[in-house]
Amino acid sequence: MFGKFLFKNKNIGHENKIEELYLRHKDRLFHIAMGFLHNSSDAEDAVQEVFVHIARDPQRFISIPDDKKPAYLSVTVRNIALDMIKKEKRDFQESLCNEIPCDDCLPEDIVIGKAEAEELTSYIENLPTGKKDALFLKAVLGYSYEQISHELGISEEAARKRISEARKQIRKFLDGKK
Question: DSSP string covering 88-149, please?
């Protein structure tokens, strides 16, 4: 399983301890990650990353007192989830900024365009969670309405409505900027 993959050249005692730890805490860590990421695939990645960190230096983790290990795992998965959110935000901002035409643009036009892109990104980030998540799945990840409904646990019609409402709010925001 997980431990066998990570530790094929490591100490068997460490492999077994960390595999047991993984099996004991993976569900709890998954729920913590989901609270931040709202995406099961990303939450699973965050949990995996916790144990990849441990695998890099198992002796360091094993030296932590047993009563402190659950807290250490919780903090680690939280930090990884927050790092994933920051990276996603950076990537999204960069993709918006890359859309700004710059062949014959003046430097000040580029700066204004980037500022507007950051303002739009901030606006989108402050949309209600349901609309923001549905829009992200559709616009960024290219999910179908069926996939979105499955991922968010809603009907396809509700997914369509959330995306439509999010787009209307964004259009209204952009119209107010003109």
Answer: HHHHHHHHHHHTS--SS--HHHHHHHHHHHHHHHHHHHTS-HHHHHHHIIIIIS---HHHHH
Query: For residues 168 and 161, what is the distance between their CA atoms, to the nearest angstrom?
Result: 10
Give this prediction's pTM: 0.50
User: What's the pLDDT tens digit per position in 109-125?
Assistant: 544 556 676 787 788 88
Q: pLDDT (tens digit, 9 = 90+) per residue, 5-18?
A: 444 444 555 667 77
Residues 6 or more apart in contact with residue 36 via CB below 8 angstroms = 78, 81, 82, 85
